[in-house]
Amino acid sequence: MNKADYNQEATRQLSNTTFYKPLPSDPTLDYQKKLHCLLKSLPTATREQILTESPSDPRPGLFYLLPKIHKPGHPGRPIISGIGTLTTGLSSYVDTLLKPFVTNTPSYLRDTTDFLRKLQNIDNLPNNTILATMDVEALYTNIPHEDGLQAIRNTIPEDTTANLIADLCNFVLTHNYFRFENNLYLQISGTAMGTRMAPQYANIFMADLEQRFLNSRPLSPLLYLRYIDDIFMIWTHGQETLEIFHRDFNNLHPTINLSLDHSTREIHFLDTTVQINNGKLDTTLYRKPTDSYSYLHASSSHPEHTTRSIVYSQALRYNRICSNPTDRDQKLQDFYQAFINLNYPPGEIKKQIERARRIPRNHLLQDRPKKTNNRTPLVITYNPQLKPVQHIINKLQPILEQDTIFKEALGDFLRFASCPI
Fold it and tell me: CA–CA distance from 278 to each of 262, 264, 275, 326 (Å)?
């Protein structure tokens, strides 16, 4: 997409007065006063936590598009970068409050691994089983503020907490101003894909909507799972009733539109293809037509362990997704050739692939809790002379740990990291 087409698409979207309103001037100072008034109503510790994550000199968000190159006309996905904006800290705090309620919803999917885990024990499917997916069109921008906030109140059981979170969320939604080119805008409907709380907010809205719908249906899916705006279903009541289900779901809310795709053999969901095989489900890797194996080239100046880990982590992904070992190995042959084309050493590619293949698939699908990391990172600008500094820090580490006050203040071992200029 060239710059003229990009700007034309951005202008087209920003001209939609249902979602955006031009601003005559920068409202930062006025909005800052309103934010401080809101924060005064919060406990001191909460207020300080939000302010700690908020920039001292906030700026408007930055609007940009991610072209959907796999769709006709390459429409742009609107993103408003929330980094350094007025609501950065508040949005992060709301995200923390909403997350426990999101993860407890029946349809919640954390990622592909979570999806695969939930398919593991499904078998004895009847002959008329249909695999179906639904996609919510432009979910983030199509959630009316009042409906999204009501979904929060419906989801959180304690009224005082629900109203507080809804008020904080409302401030983020109604003060989402941003810049494109030399113009300022305010988003007046929906939430920005780019603010921290957006995924949790969208999840709660959809969970509230779908639960009310599913509870009212005479026929329900055998399995119903959702990753934000992507829905996966196993349907066992015939195609006609599936189409009625889809039609009625589409009529439930005026701004929510769902597309439907279905098959009695296989269907794509996230980065997987799910297949029905003798009453059981098999999964294999799905690569979009636009996927061109755009991994890091071997000539890059990255450390060797980085390039090695790319091959290993991607081979692990193949091992995790492909339920049939023969299918996995066939796909790994293409994978091997892709890294050969990127000038990776053949021996190293084979070594990392074999290392990944040795790990049992059921081990990769286990839900392992994340390790808590209390180490304090030392992040400084990259310099070729940093290696000696790293060795000195590592050498002095045991001495520093003997100081109980120092260790209590910094927690676990120091971590040494460097950033490129």
Answer: 18, 12, 10, 17
Helix (H, G, I), strand (E, B) or coil at 167: helix
Two tokens, residue 47: 């207020």
Instruction: With beta carbons less than 8 A apart as the criterion, state whether 52 and 45 touch.
Output: no
Per-residue DSSP letters for 249-316? HHTSSTT--EEEEEESSEEEETTEEEEEETTEEEEEE---TT----PPPTTS-S-HHHHHHHHHHHHH
- Residue-range definition of the domain harbouring residue 348: 304-365
| Last-in-domain residue among 198, 222, 243 | 198
Whether residue 276 is contained in a domain is answered as no
Q: Quick check: is 296 in a domain?
A: no
pLDDT, one tens digit for every residue, the chain (421 residues): 788 889 999 999 999 999 999 999 999 999 999 999 999 989 999 999 999 889 989 999 999 998 877 676 677 889 999 899 999 999 999 999 999 999 999 999 999 999 999 999 899 999 999 999 999 999 999 999 999 999 999 999 888 889 999 999 999 999 999 999 999 999 999 998 889 999 999 999 999 999 999 999 999 999 999 999 999 999 999 999 999 999 999 999 999 999 999 999 999 999 999 999 999 999 999 998 888 888 999 999 888 888 899 999 999 999 999 999 999 999 999 999 999 999 999 999 999 999 999 999 999 999 877 777 666 666 667 777 777 877 787 787 777 777 777 667 666 655 655 554 4
* Cα(189)–Cα(361) distance, integer angstroms: 44
Contact (CB, 8 A) for 335 and 314: yes
Number of domains present in the structure of the chain: 3
Instruction: Answer for the pair 271, 262: CB distance below 8 angstroms, yes or no.
Output: no
154 DSSP β-pair partners: none
User: DSSP label at 372?
Assistant: P
Q: Which letter does DSSP use for residue 368 in this model?
A: P
pTM: 0.86
324 and 392 within one domain: no
| AA identity, residue 135 | D
Please provide the distance, in angstroms rounded to a whole number, between the alpha carbons at the two ends of the chain. Answer: 29
